[in-house]
């Protein structure tokens, strides 16, 4: 029979404070049979194997993660869509405002010219505007050239008798349409409409 000794320090008398050595004997049969005195190394090895065998996440953990992701997506998606819509409309309005400024530049220059002609140095040629009426030239092409917007984006433009822009319709590349109109009080307003809804801004 093989005897293994495991020495441990223990207190023999708690009151007296006397310490000593206590011997625990392990037999080969006890180690194999799983006696109450188990080999410490075996216990350690078993624990390490169990730890190594545990890989990945459990099904419950995965379900919890998916539920949390679904809740976050449901809360964030509408906000993200609204932000994208506002950005699209804002970009379209800014482009339309640039076109209105370009149209007013053309009309003011024509009004100051004795012949009522805006002398264009770029695409579209000269434009003649008399009492708010375009007599010659393609005013929309000139507006698009000055505003640096895509071709055929300015749908229409009108001027009053004082050569002031009274209305302008613009269609952006992102699909948003913008209408600029001047009220009876002389205030201009941009109305942005399209796939993202309608928004009106007064200038």
Summarize the structure.
This protein folds into two domains: 49 residues, no CATH class; 144 residues, no CATH class. Helices cover 41% and strands 31% of the residues.
The average pLDDT value, as a whole number, equals 78
Compute the number of structural domains.
Answer: 2
How many extended strands? 10
Number of helices: 4
Please outline the major beta sheet.
5 strands, antiparallel
Write structural notes for this entry.
- This protein has 203 residues and is of the alpha+beta class.
- It has two domains: 49 residues, no CATH class; 144 residues, no CATH class.
- The strands form three sheets. A five-stranded antiparallel sheet has the order 6-7-8-9-10, with helices on one face. Strands 3-4-5 form a three-stranded antiparallel sheet, covered by helices on one side. The protein has a two-stranded antiparallel sheet with strand order 1-2.
- Helix 3 crosses helix 4.
Write out key terms for the chains shown.
203 residues; five-stranded antiparallel β-sheet; disordered N terminus
What is the topology?
Layout: E1 3-13, E2 18-27, H1 28-33, H2 40-53, H3 59-112, E3 117-118, E4 127-130, E5 133-136, H4 139-147, E6 154-159, E7 165-171, E8 177-182, E9 188-194, E10 197-202
Antiparallel strand pairs: 1-2, 3-4, 4-5, 6-7, 7-8, 8-9, 9-10
Helix pairs in contact: 3-4
């Amino acid at each position: 029979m093989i005897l293994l000794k495991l020495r441990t320090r223990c207190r023999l008398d708690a009151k007296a404070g006397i310490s000593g050595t206590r011997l625990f004997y392990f037999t080969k049969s006890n180690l194999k049979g799983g006696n109450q005195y188990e080999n410490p190394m075996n216990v350690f090895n078993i624990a390490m194997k169990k730890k190594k065998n545990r890989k990945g996440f459990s099904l419950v953990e995965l379900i919890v993660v998916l539920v949390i992701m679904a809740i976050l997506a449901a809360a964030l998606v509408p906000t993200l869509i609204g932000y994208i819509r506002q950005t699209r409309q804002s970009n379209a309005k800014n482009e339309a405002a640039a076109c209105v400024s370009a149209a007013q530049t053309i009309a003011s220059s024509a009004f100051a010219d004795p012949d009522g002609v805006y002398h264009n140095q770029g695409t579209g040629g000269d434009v003649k505007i008399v009492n708010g009426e375009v007599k010659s030239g393609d005013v929309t092409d000139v507006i698009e050239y000055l505003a640096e917007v895509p071709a055929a984006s300015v749908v229409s433009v009108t001027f009053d008798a004082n050569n002031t822009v009274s209305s302008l319709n613009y269609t952006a590349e992102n699909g948003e349409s913008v209408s600029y109109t001047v009220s009876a009080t002389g205030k201009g307003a941009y109305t942005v409409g399209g796939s993202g809804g309608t928004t009106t801004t007064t200038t």
